[in-house]
């Protein structure tokens, strides 16, 4: 299915983005990869060997650069069959203590970057899908796009926004361009650098400031980037509108469906027990 398909991926310098690049390359895809991390992107290039791929260092909040990257991929490879909007970041702070510039930065990377990635890629993906019968718009949300979580208000807001955008786009394209599969992805805990790279601004009362939250997250994260990538690609093959990654994501999905009003109390009680 992916042989000679041209797929663009943001956040390809590490984690899920790199794992997606390696897996798709092994299936014959041609890749247009982007990341802010030049060193990480170079390592992805090394791991890909001589498989066809272009590398672009950019910040997804630079809309002109993002569009130029997509258009450049089309110019280089002659088409664009799909985009995976994967780049993201987080800050740790209760809402009242989160500076506006940090909140806005999370929204700009996690949501506006996805919006502009879709906007830049959509005409090309629609053209490929109309010609060959398949195209993909894949937007990475989170389990935090399914439930709120304390100290993650900015991340929650951005990932809920990605979810809403993707659901609306899926309904629209099902009418106008049914060959384009629009997929929203909800990863649970994945063993990536996102927690380690998070900016920790403030904690809730009672939380130990000496705790290595990144190490705790990695220890408890049940899913590897490679497993996450394989799940996403399986969702692309099946044209699944929603992809849940990991047993924790499936549990959270069950919890919020079963207890749509009171599930936050379960979370609060759980956090209280951990103090």
Task: Please explain how this structure is put together.
It is a single chain. This protein has 275 residues and is an alpha/beta fold. It has a single domain (6-249), classed as 3-Layer(aba) Sandwich (Rossmann fold), CATH 3.40.50. Helix content is 51%, strand content 15%. The chain is built from nine helices and nine strands. It has helices spanning 15-26, 38-48, 63-77, 100-132, 153-176, 213-220, 225-238, 247-258, 263-274, and strands at residues 6-10, 30-35, 53-57, 82-85, 91-92, 135-140, 180-187, 199-200, 242-245. The strands form two sheets. Strands 3-2-1-4-6-7-9 form a seven-stranded parallel beta sheet, with helices on both faces. α1 (15-26) packs parallel to α2 (38-48) and α3 packs parallel to α4. The longest helix has 33 residues, at 100-132. It is globular. The relative contact order is 0.13. Residues 271-275 have low confidence and may be disordered.
